[in-house]
Amino acid sequence: MPNFLENLFAQLHRGSVRIVLREIRGDQFHDVTGAQLLSQIQRAREALRRYHLQPGARCALFAPNSIRWMAIDLALMAEGLVVVPLYSRQAPGELVAVMQDCQPSLLIVGDKSLGDELARPWAASSAAQPPQATFEDLLPLAAPSEGISPAPPNPRRESDLVTIVYTSGTSGEPKGVCLDTGNVSFMLSRTTGRLDQLMRGSQGPDCVFHYLPLNFAASWIATLSFLSRESVLTLSTDLNRLADEIRLAAPHYFLNVPTLLERVRRGVHDAIAKRPAVIRSLFAKARDASERRQTQTAKPFDAFWLALGRKLIFSKIKERFGPHLRALICGSAPLAPETQNFFLMLGVRVLQVYGLTETTGICTMDDPNGTVDTGHVGPTIDGIEMKIAENEEIVVRGPNVFPGYWNRQEETARVLQDGWFRTGDQGEPNAHGNWRIIGRVKNLIILNSGHKVPPEPIEDKIAQLLAGAQHVVVVGNGRGYLCALVTGPVEPAAVQSALDAINSDLPHYRQIRNFTILRETLTPDGGLLTAMGKLRRAAINTRFAQEIDGLYTTKKPADPLSS
Description:
The chain is α/β, with parallel strands linked by helices. It folds into 3 domains: 4-252, Rossmann fold; 258-323 and 325-441, Rossmann fold (3-Layer(aba) Sandwich), CATH 3.40.50.12780; 444-562, ANL, C-terminal domain (GMP Synthetase, Chain A, domain 3, 2-Layer Sandwich). It has 18 helices and 25 strands. Strands 2-1-10-9-11-12-13-14 form an 8-stranded mixed beta sheet, with helices on both faces. Strands 15, 16, 18, 19 and 20 form a 5-stranded antiparallel beta sheet that branches. Strands 4-3-5-6 form a 4-stranded parallel beta sheet, with helices on both faces. Helix 8 (217-227) links the parallel strand 9 (206-210) and strand 10. Helix 2 (34-48) packs across helix 3 (67-78), helix 7 packs across helix 8 and helix 15 (455-465) packs across helix 16. It is globular.
């Protein structure tokens, strides 16, 4: 059976005369056909051979998304080399630490300036620097883009490594996740199958937009899935123009993180608040009607208000995504049910996926033709087993589970036990088989009363009631009660009101007894968030230790045990 790379090359041959990949630069498309992309891949392969790399050698790839990034990535894999993709916005010192761990035989950078960024922290260490090559060295822009006969990919065994994806996670400690040919081949057979279901009955190629960095596993798997199908894949080149680029690309679907969808929802609410009273009233009535319909508590005239809202307001919001949109695909973190319902109100389906780098990006996917439950991430994909272990931890078994971490045998043995991968995530399936992600096992707050509290559901509820809140962090490990850190332009009275609302529905040990509003923004650059926007709780607890201590001395709450 052909592996994923052979299938992808075959698809590019079938699409030799049509556009398969393009970048948006300003208001213009810069594109390549299947034949042109295969030609670029072949040119890069020939240039790579000048470096006399042995099969299985590791090569680091450091650059923003582009057509040349994709061509060089595919060329490296076709030559039997192991790709180590690096995040172009990560701190240079952290990137050097990653490369010192995996010791690449070649560092490929988008341009010389990126290489210079890494040279300074390299010079401060005693380790030898790998040789460097720029994109221009491997794929000169002035060179012809056609006319080179593409060769098939080098043969691969199922166990041959394809990539080492470094994930710092919430601990901040980089770990190299090894993914092999079998992992990727299995996953692409499943993701392309789901996309077949989504696009059933369509004519012509899929139009797909992509803005997420290609160094992340789910993002990379998504792009390989798109190129393995009859698709036109459009790469974003300017996140500051994302809304304009989406309209220009007019996609059928694209991969998202919750941050973007939450931003769209807040932006719409802010814009509606500035409109005339009649528009605000119609929006509110249509929104309430939609929410009642989704909870099966509809009232008379709800259908009227919802239809009117869709015609006069919601349709115009949906137009921002172009005329062809079938669904938004969302992953990396749980999406707030309110946001998923908001898009459903607009007439836009949001299909969620769940997975980790160690599971080749994906474990579950919403079935476009099945039951999509708000707040859930879909059923386990065919061929994968998921179950609940101790502390409600999700464990996974299947061909998608990675063989291990690079140079970390003890860590590998800790997470791979009896054929099952311990995800560290807590979750549960519902009657439809759709999974809900509750939180992280290691994030459990253990109060000095012995009660165990997952913070994520409480944080989500608070954030939903605080429109201006950027982040909410629940703290209290080893303490007598829970408190919260809140960032963003919010007033104390609003925070207290939100806490009063959620505390009334919580048992005493889960109630938030005190809070403080932080004026510092939590960012990846500041080391308080991961690159994907997840909280680095240990770093947050250290940075704001004084503020947290103050929460337990400035205000004496009622004794939780007496509530």
